Amino acid sequence: MSHSSRTKLTNTIIFILLAIGAVAMIAPLIWMLSTSIKQKIDVFALPPVWIPENPQWGKYAEIWTAGPLLSGIKNSVIIALSVTVVGTFTSSLAAFSFSKLKFPGKHMIFFLLLSALMIPYPAVMIPQFMMFSKIGWVDTLLPLIVPGLFGNIVMIFFLRQYLISVPDEVLEAAKIDGSSYFRLFSTITFPLIKPAVAAQLILWFMGIWNDYLAPIIYLTSPEKQTLQLVIANFNAQYAIQTDYPLIMAASVIALLPVLIIFLVFQKQIIESVAISGVKG
Amino acid sequence: MQTISNLYRKEKIYGWLFILPPVLGFLLFTLFPVAYSFYGSLTDWDGLGQMDFIGLSNFKELLTDELFHKAAFNTIFMMLGIPIGLILALLIALGLNRGIPGTTTFRVIYYVPVISSLAAISIMWSWAYNGDYGLVNQFLDIFGIDGPNWLMNKYSVKPALILMTVWKGLGYTMLLYLAALQSVPRSYYEAAELDGASGFKAFLHITWPMVKPVTFFIVVTNIIGGSQIFTEINIMTNTGGPEYSSASVVFYIWQKAFDNFQMGYASAMAVVLGIFIFIVTLIQFKMNEKSSYEA
């Protein structure tokens, strides 16, 4: 066999293996979608039915009255949007300052902030909870919003790295001309780092949207809960009645927004995640 | 035009002003709570009454607390998924690095579980692990294997959770490996081929050393993430599994703190977890320094 035809054969075998793997990765999700449009009898059919003969979309109407799904979406959107919009502003301003301005204590403060990355959320969650309960914020969205408004250290870190490679000359000239520092940031620096900011913002948004531990600690009333808690309660409540189509329909809804964001921005997301590993 | 010293003073003030929010956030929501966790771990804090200093009693109690030992054992046991995921992800990345058609599509498909909501995924897998009608047992049935009721059996619940976490994390690890593989210069392989080095030899002497730093990064981030496993446990086995066989450390902390209001005792566990993660991260920093000197 010649060299190139052997490579071709190897590639074909690898392609088939990768395809089998891809099916295994996606099958549970298809199964979830398929369950959500099944009649109850089909759910327990043996052997399993993958594509139901007459799909029932009714569960997608029923979920909105079966639990506080709508308020769950609303709460998740409020939290994720306010944190990422304000937090991205404070983070990029800080990254600008850390990389382009000169002031004493800069490096020490930066490394102090970085040390926060070594501290897991469980190590701070109990005192944080007590702090917020002292000021009466338990069972409101505030404990999930306010800390994020002060900025995100991962984002500051990446934007700073990115900004260090941007030459200083333009900024120096504008400085001498007496431009205000905020204008240096908003008109010169920010436009340069927009793509990096966007990728970080999307990753952060997805992280908040999918968060579970912090919401479960703070939110007790059903109408205050985020989407992830609402679907977890759907699961606890309706699994006893074995209403799996309903549970799966609610879970599909919880999954969809982030899935769409991912499919639209997959190139940017994949690139910025890949960079994080290379820089390690 | 302003004088230079004037300019510098102004820059100093704005420099500090712009970093003020994250610094305040750090002090309020990280440094103060961490300090308070340490202090709380030395008291009988119950969240309501007075906090009495009891020294290291909480830590002593941890030494004999069987539930804590179980939770710690379960947490470490479930990290067995890390090497499994690592090997699978590297194999997939090697396959995707050959320029086969459809690479982009594969990359997206393998990545979908990573971005998916962990709560939704956990709900879906609890259904897939259903003893009678779940996807997993129906699949095993094809091969004539009678699968257990995965999440209700103390021997199968941890492997079930491991399989799920491997599935969920595979795309992320694969992506990091792929990025590392793509940064290996082609000329290295061409040189190896000229020397007559076979595929496996080239892997051992070129590919593996080149992806070693990223392997290390993945192991460390996975240990940090794995030691905080909570959501899957809370949703899939909401009591911590049969005989507490799937409870994790964070699950136990959460139960103690927010169900039993043993804030002091829970803080002691949080401190132990925090120190463990701190050490793991520190090792990573040290190793990073070393590898960047070598490079």
From TrEMBL, chain A:
Signal peptide: none annotated. CDD domains: TM_PBP2 (cd06261). Residues 73-265 form the ABC transmembrane type-1 domain. It is a multi-pass membrane protein. It holds the Pfam family BPD_transp_1. Keywords: Cell membrane, Membrane, Transmembrane, Transmembrane helix, Transport. It is found in: Cell membrane. Its main location: membrane. The chain crosses the membrane at residues 12-33, 77-96, 108-129, 141-163, 184-209, 244-265. Belongs to the binding-protein-dependent transport system permease family. This is Sugar ABC transporter permease. It comes from Paenibacillus vini.
